[in-house]
Design goal:
With about 140 residues, this protein is mainly α. The chain has one domain: Cytochrome Bc1 Complex, Chain D, domain 2 (Orthogonal Bundle). The chain is about 55% helix and about 5% strand. It has a two-stranded parallel ribbon with strand order 1-2.
Length: about 140
């Protein structure tokens, strides 16, 4: 009897949990002004020193980059950068430096800056969906 009550409680709680996660993911996107201009400027400096020897800025605003990351949560891109970059010394930047580079990548992709700083906390980044425009849509006409 106790097992049935426990299972019934799990089945009832599951839809509420899924709904809460969906609301969190769809509420904030990279189009919501989630980083500051100052962060992107500092990120550009770090990018120039640590990333540009292997990656041109254009590769991070390319159709391949957009198709790979659009729709994912920002924590995934942050984690990838933290574990894989820079190629010669992965994980060598501080969490704040990775966040600053992430802000610069968002700026390169035409995402708007806002009044609040992008957090370095992966739990908070998990709540933000990457919503990038295809490059052809962001080009001036």
């Amino acid at each position: 009897m106790m097992l049935r009550l426990l299972l019934a409680g799990c089945i009832i709680a599951l839809p509420v949990e899924v709904k809460a996660q969906t609301a969190t993911l769809t509420g904030r996107t990279t189009r919501s002004g989630i980083y500051t201009s100052a962060q992107a400027d500092k990120g550009h400096e770090i990018y120039s020193l640590s990333c540009s020897s292997c990656h041109s800025a254009a590769t991070h605003a390319s159709p391949a980059f957009v198709s790979k990351w659009s729709g994912h949560v920002l924590a995934e891109l942050y984690q990838y950068m933290n574990q894989e970059m820079p190629k010669e010394n992965p994980g060598s930047l501080s969490p704040k430096e990775y966040t600053l580079v992430l802000a610069y990548l968002l700026k390169m992709n035409g995402m708007p800056a806002g009044p609040m700083e992008l957090p370095s906390d992966p739990v908070e980044l998990q709540k933000i969906r990457i919503d990038l425009k295809p490059v052809r849509d962001s080009l001036p006409r």
